[in-house]
């Protein structure tokens, strides 16, 4: 067997400790697949003394993680720290700058600095891989970048955030409150260090921007992703969606038809109960890529958590050991196409509109008049049950016929500031 591949691990939290456990438990299988043993030389994290349930005594310790990159006994640096900038980015630059292999699970950093790092990797002829950064344990990066490499891909969409999917599906099945379920997702190790990244759609947007660049061969453009999170969704929305035959899921969706304009959106969608994504629950993720020869490819599996994420990290290390090291975005950075953003106003779809309104005469007439004036056609309406003696606001849901998004935006503009509305309307598209 060839010489061992020596790695350094920065970050020993949920994922880092998972990687150590995986390398220990499956060492023989991994060595067989990699063609050589994978050995940890050195590690770094904030606190050397913390009990992580793994034995670190056999590894050198660096207080300053960037020093891992300069060590002679390290071939590949594995970054499991997190954060788009700061020490993670410094380490990435340092590792690639030293010509070391670089593996990361950090979607925030790849979304913000992926092109710079990929260029550095090319320049230094150093492999860079990031399978764990998108959809955790699912081989989505490999599937799209390598498995579907022969295809033109026009659309990629899916469930890209395990925390949100866990929250929405738990709220759906148990009727529990948003806050309770979020704390549980944090305890289970699914959430980001700052969970607003999860619930406001930022984490899913990081992943979507990466998938779009990889799948469409376009320059990564995180700033272009439209982002709406799930923090405004109530149990009543979930119940109304169910009554209409839908479930609510946070969906990331990108398309770039015929090499044209790029559209990237993360938002809660109403997904028909019969759609494959409707059955995806808990921290599971699912990525759909539509190839012009392969057809619809659906990748599904655990999108977060120590084991699945460690599995993706170690798969990347095995690829480097094998010498399977395509460019990080499947083609050289200079070959990625520049694109313009698509105008969402021209997209056609149906929408669910939720209003919280004062329970008095004339309110519904005002809303429907705004719809009429903007050219929005209403297909159905549903009103939350309201106790006789309760005079508080009520929740009204409407589903529109298919139409241009711009018309719904116009209707919402017409209603802005209306005293009939107790809060701003919530607009969710129906996944077609
Ligand atoms: N937890 C999950 O399910 C998944 C996480 N990821 C990504 O993996 C990376 C790591 O995530 P987790 O293990 O969940 O995070 P974590 O918070 O459990 O662990 C982070 C580790 O980095 C160390 N660290 C953080 N800031 C540091 C600093 N300034 N200096 C030195 N050490 C520092 C911490 O001490 C800890 O050991 C992140 O980029 C995350 O987005 C990706 C997919 C799934
Ligand atoms: N916080 C992320 C972790 C994996 O990427 C999520 O919930 O999906
Ligand atoms: Na993955």
Automatic annotation (TrEMBL):
Domain ACT: 352-432
Pathway participation: Amino-acid biosynthesis; L-threonine biosynthesis; L-threonine from L-aspartate: step 3/5; Amino-acid biosynthesis; L-methionine biosynthesis via de novo pathway; L-homoserine from L-aspartate: step 3/3
GO BP annotations listed: methionine biosynthetic process; threonine biosynthetic process
Binding, L-homoserine: 192
UniProt entry keywords in alphabetical sequence: Amino-acid biosynthesis, Methionine biosynthesis, NADP, Oxidoreductase, Threonine biosynthesis
Binding site for NADP(+): 10-17
Residues that coordinate or bind NADPH: 107
Record Pfam families: ACT (PF01842), Homoserine_dh (PF00742), NAD_binding_3 (PF03447)
Location of the active site: 207
EC primary class: oxidoreductase
Coiled coil region boundaries: none
Gene3D superfamilies from the UniProt entry: 3.30.70.260, Dihydrodipicolinate Reductase, domain 2, NAD(P)-binding Rossmann-like Domain
A GO molecular-function descriptor: homoserine dehydrogenase activity
Database matches in PANTHER family: HOMOSERINE DEHYDROGENASE
Identification of the protein by name: Homoserine dehydrogenase
Lineage of the organism: Bacteria, Pseudomonadati, Pseudomonadota, Alphaproteobacteria, Sphingomonadales
